[in-house]
Amino acid sequence: MKKVILAFMCLCGATLSAQNVQLHYDLGHTLYSDLSARPSVTTTAELFKPDKWGNTFFFIDLDYFHDGVAGAYWEISREVNVSADKRWAAHVEYDGGVASSQLNDLSTRFQHAFLVGPAWNWASADFSRTFSLQAMYKYYFKGQNVWNRPFSSFQGTAVWSMQLARRHFTFSGFIDCWYDASVKGNWITITEPQLWWNIDALRGCEDVHLSLGTEVEISNNFVFDRNGRNDRFFAVPTIAAKWTF
Question: 115-144 burial string, b = 16+ CB within 10 Å, else e?
Fold first, then answer.
């Protein structure tokens, strides 16, 4: 699982702070025979912290096989407001992680990357609808294999969130698209829309900050199959729960 961004919260300025833990049961190994070695469980921990200058956000994904942790991935970003209305910001980010396989005893470190660029943020008056666009220069550091040389890239990101039915439901997600000359068509795309049912919106359940829902990882040239190839389209849903602190 790539990432589940809550960067839309940066649109709310210094009035909001949030952190949550998510549990996802991944159906990829059930739907696709080529993904039979894919981990079936992922936990995500996220933290968003605004301040008077901007905000800091990070998340950590942990994937699990039946006998333990299969891999870890994290992203951390910092945004600094550059306009008085806080719609424009300078965005700096780091991505990196490690993964193992059920097919062999080898582990793989992801080719980590540094990103920088402008961000444009928008929110409705009550923050029930938010939207963010980021256009970033992406630099890949040297990877662990000799053919993973440093190289420059470009990434575009859009992030959204919508509160529906008087906040009983939340529809949120992101889409990333970045250049990579090593894949078919030279572009990798991934989007992860989520739909959550928020139990604390029910009368008498205000202190139960639990959400139940699903995420669908839709990607092209991103997911590696059991043959080590990442040149296909996949749509992988999850069954998920989230607790917000």
Answer: bebebebebeeebebbbbebebebebeebe
167 vs 121: CA distance, rounded Å: 21
Q: Model confidence at 224, in pLDDT bands (50, 70, 90)? A: confident
Tokens of 164: 């529906």
Angle at 144 between CA 141 and CA 148, to 5 degrees: 60
Q: Is this prediction's pTM over 0.70? A: yes
Residues in Cβ contact with 177 at an 8 Å cutoff, skipping those fewer than 6 apart: 155, 156, 157, 187, 188, 189
Give the pLDDT confidence of 144-167 residue by residue, as tens digits: 655 578 899 999 999 999 999 999
Q: Which two tokens stand for residue 90?
A: 């300078």
Q: What is the pLDDT of residues 90-121, one digit of tens each?
A: 999 999 999 887 766 667 888 899 999 999 99
